[in-house]
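## retry 2 of 3
previous attempt timed out at serialization; input unchanged, resubmitting
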Amino acid sequence: MKIVALGQALIHAPVEWPQELLRMTQDADAVFCNFEGCLPPDDSWPMKSKTIHAAHPQALAMLRGLGVTHLSIANNHVWDFGHAGVIETRRLAEAAGFSVAGAGASLDEAIRPAVRNGVALIAVDAGPTPDWAVADASPGVAPLRLHHRLGLPAADVRRLRAIAEATGESELRRNRAKVGYDKGQGAPDFYGLRLSEAAAPADMFEPDAADLSRLADVISSLRPETEIVMVSVHYHRWHPSWSEPPVWLRGVSEALAGAGADAVLCTGPPFAYAVERVGGAIVAPGLGNLVFHTRRGPVYDALGLPVWDGMALVCQDGEWRREDVKVLKPDQ
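## retry succeeded, writing output
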């Protein structure tokens, strides 16, 4: 069996695939890609004011021409044009012949594995994502929500909580929670932040227990009938330095590997990170870009950020290896 896992495709113009990439995907039983965009219906409108990615109308045909079979649409751009954009993007991707995972008309559809040739894809988005774009009874992405806490020394925690009480912010939050305006893990400690005691200041992210349990159950349900289980995780909770993956991802990878995932394929940061083994799974903390039709190219270049250095994971006969991929720029 041959599997090829590629990075994220942000396509706004026609592309011509390099011959070396076409040779890589040739004769593959499964080719994975994250479709970083939306194909909205004509009567929809943007749900935000910046970084909106309506894909080229022929983007899916381009990816099919590359040999992509398994498509993740769990990301922060599938909902750029609201619920209508989510539903239409999935409909068109399925009509184009892809096995699609990660977003849909309901949570059941969004979390449903895409299975082809003995290879299953489950896709989730780790946010941050607005509540309305998370699938439940309504359309959205399959979630792996991360609960954010700020770790501080005990004296700092007490001081901030005291300030929140003195200003009335804590009382306001409690009253909102009582009537159901604010939901979640209790009222925040300080102006929207939840605090925890820690030896030194630290950003702390914990995956939602219900989301992680649901994902583990789906993975487990695919065994032993499915030969390979791939889990796609899209995230924008990046490491502050951008040069390495975030700390929270290690624990998530361990949990997914423990549930039986063979590969954890991550997108979101436009950077390719080092591949590692976690338990029984191969983990790509960042596959980087495949196509990156961004307007910020000159800015990335000026800052020396390696957004044009892509990668692929190739599995042949059970052995995984990393291959360099030339990222297609806006003018290619």
